[in-house]
Fold this protein.
Amino acid sequence: MARATFSIWRGEAGQGKLIDYTTDVSEGMVVLDAIHDIQATQATDLACRWNCKAGKCGSCSAEINGQPRLMCMTRMNQLDLSEPVTIEPMRTFPHLKDLVTDVSWNYEVKKKIARFNPRKPDAADGTWRMQQEDVDRPQEFRKCIECFLCQDVCHVLRDHHLHDEFIGPRFLVYAANLEMNPIDAENRLEDLRKLHGIGYCNITKCCTRVCPEEIKITDNAIIPLKERVVDNAFDPLAKLIGLVTGKIPGP
Amino acid sequence: MADYRAYDHDVLVVGAGGAGLRAAIEAAASGVSVGLVCKSLLGKAHTVMAEGGMAAAMGNVDDRDNWKVHFTDTLRGGQYVNNWRMAELHAKEAPDRVRELEAWGALFDRTKDGRILQRNFGGHRYPRLAHVGDRTGLEMIRTLQDHGIHQGIDVHMEVTIVSLLKRGDRVVGALAYDRHHGGFLLFRAKAVVLATGGVGRAFRITSNSWEYSGDGQALAYQAGADLTDMEFIQFHPTGMVWPPSVKGILVTEGVRGEGGVLLNNKGERFMFKDIPENYRAQTADDPEEGWRYTQGDKEARRPPELLTRDHVARCIVREVREGRGSPHGGVFLDIAWIKERLPNAADHIRKKLPSMYHQFKQLADIDITKEPMEIGPTTHYIMGGIRVDGDSQMSTVPGLFAAGESAAGLHGANRLGGNSLSDLLVFGKRAGEFAARFAKENVALAPDEGEVAERIKEALAPFDRKTGESPFQVQHDLQAMMQELVGIVRREDEMVRAAERLETLRERAIRVAVTGNREYNPGWHTAIDLGHLITVSEAIILSAIARKESRGGHFREDYPEKKAEFAGFNYCVRKGADGAMALAARPIPPLPAELKQIVEEMK
């Protein structure tokens, strides 16, 4: 059986170093299997998050050879095992221990986005009618498993630390899902511009590349949202009509 | 004084999957203060893995469906040992619970006229499962999560309950530890709802995540509550079998609902060879009729691949045992064949089963639009659990409620696919409602400080031992033992051996040692989980030895037939006065006349 070496970040609260562990590698094995083997036999206090081990819960996010990925969906045959494989925590969030980071900021951000607010039911049975082609778009965004890899890789957060001013790709996707829900009646465009910092995104598409759900974050969520935000705030024709009809007070 | 942080909530909900979230939302809506404890991060609970859909007789696709049909399907699937009151409430209330999700932002797949689309599933007479592709569980948990965070619920993430705390007969709170810092939390609560899910981690091959260690069942048992039906475990027929690292991961029943067929290594559709008598009238005569059923032909009857899970799993085991299995010890599940019937079949499969397509592509290098999958049974679900009142979901301990997989009754001896997600919503809501009512009618009582200190000392004991086995090793051996001796095919002699081995494992479990500090220490956590796993394993073994017949998920090689004399009761276990686990048979109350008439009409 083949063997491979894993250089795993060990330590607490940002202090730490890479430590090498060697383990057996079998057919079809994923990185999370190696972590579990090491945990069971060499380092019972090695901290990592995981739940489903099937790419559905988004818990086991890490940086594998520098790439943000889910450990449960990264197979050994995708990696060069002649060199040690480095496994590090997501670097954009405060470090807790080993591979575990404090992602609580994400949970706080979500609460600040105006919640789903449906219009009154309009079908006779007290529900709504929606066509499949109208729900296709938001359904793409609802595939998100909240692994926060897109947040991890986004340079606005990772390098510029603008956590107080920018909600990050995950929550732009979340906002897009709400804005494009056929029965939602809320308007979040002003908030997106002023509170959520959508303008900081300069569409480098790093988030799209790391999304394990293959959501086209930039093209399908962020760019359409940016267009709506701009139309809402700066469209001269709309402004003129607004002035004429009195919806916008004159100077 | 013991070292802990204290929190006061009117209602404490333990578990943040579908049932826990729904309970917390309902309790908060009634105006009481609510604490919600998640073993992991919010939104990561096992509900996220549910694929096929949630069963609700809305009749959007076939207007012959109604609650009575759903009710009788549930009893038939459960082999008539269900809590019939729960089956009745579930069938009646599920449609409203589904529509409520839509009002909270869920986006289900649609019918042509714009309503919620429903799909076929095993044991359901009509297309009944509201769904979103094959990621319905994710849709459900995210909808509840995104709604729940605006309801004023205090969420405690990565916190694990160590023990329930009582004063007299009543539950008055719980002791927990927080994984980040390794510190203890004392929750004082007027009512506690357990919604902790199942016990799959007691077995080696399972579709369940690490969290599924029987916490709720074991905590309730230790607090004096009854557990019931613990012998009834569902081995889902279709788990992945290859490569080894993915063994047990679920392959949704939706594959068969969309026309997927089961084949042995001779290419035979072996499910046609064995159709149980009570399903014969509802099952297709030939592959042609079965295909028409999956495509929505209302005159056609369902293919035998969509018989109940217990039966399909046993047929697969038989094929493998008799040498007709696939190369890696399973059988073949083929959806690619539908290209003979449908134009653009590959696109259709990717649209209807996107997660399955990716799962096999990424983890097994299999393109399911081109070649068959290899699948075999995997430990999936426990029908048994905490015995509750059908209306209120209160256990036999005052102030202690349970909902979802951790509670028992709705599913009897075998759960129908799709009935779990609707179970979470219907009984999560009820548990939240009645727990809140209990909290309003009762005063808070302070837990006993001495008991708290004692429990903290016990929880920390693994750190005091300088030498000792790794908790992972003991857990591994327990899983191997349960898989081998108390798995899908059971025998008296093997289970007696299991009971003996469990005593050895219990001894080993209390001597494990953990290294490192208390902060985010998975070894320590596993040491705590071990106690729960051993308690539920004992309950499973004891109940499975007692039921000397085969029924639903419980198959006895030495008693392969269903016996009428076992139809009238459920087995219960409870902590005896001497501290040992005591088993008793509890008669099932007779069906009221109007429900009995419905069952007769639908036969």
